[in-house]
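Late entry, written up from scratch paper. The run itself happened at the end of the previous shift, but nothing got recorded in the book at the time, so transcribing now.
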Amino acid sequence: MKSLRIVDLSYDVEQTMMVYPGLSRPVLQWLATHNQEGHWSSKLTLPVHAGTHVDAPKHFVANGQSVDKIPLDSLVGEAVVCNLTDLNLKIITSKDLEKYDQIIISNRIVILNTGTYKKYQSRGFLEYPYLAPDAAQWLVTKAIRALGVDMMSIDPLGSQEATAHRILLGANIPIIENLTNLDFLPDMQPFTFIALPLKIKDGEAAPCRAIALLPTDPVKGE
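Output as recorded:
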């Protein structure tokens, strides 16, 4: 088997991490310490939408699939990156994605690199480009396996309608939000992507550890 290298696409879970406005931050509580009890033991209180996480259809769809029921092959498989970093977009439209028509094909996981992750822990991280409804619908027609993004949401900040979420999740296309390190991935070249969420029964979302598996040898165009 050809050797592979792993690229970690997930944020550290920590008490100072940025979260969607209105969400509480993670809280790590030490239940035992090495000095006192001779070992470390801790308790983590974590909103399921904090950090790198998977949105299941249940998030916005009545009677939608919960995160523990998402087929894992929806979140493991061949992926491609659409590099949108040079476009300085405020809204991602179907025209922006149609440029990648040849690589966005059925059963692929599509990842949008907008460069937002580079603004993490700054105000700019909240000023992310969001997915227009026509772009979400176009991805549905392409029958993609899942959508990954480096933004904290695919809808505008504070949106009550959450139209893009409803379109994709209504088509049973899970969404992986808050990806990072996307510049380490090859543009236009497929690679293996894995994002396994915690198996939270009846949950609408769950934290995940997202990674990419790349050939050890440089990929052409990387």
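The mean pLDDT is 95.
(Scratch paper discarded after transcription.)
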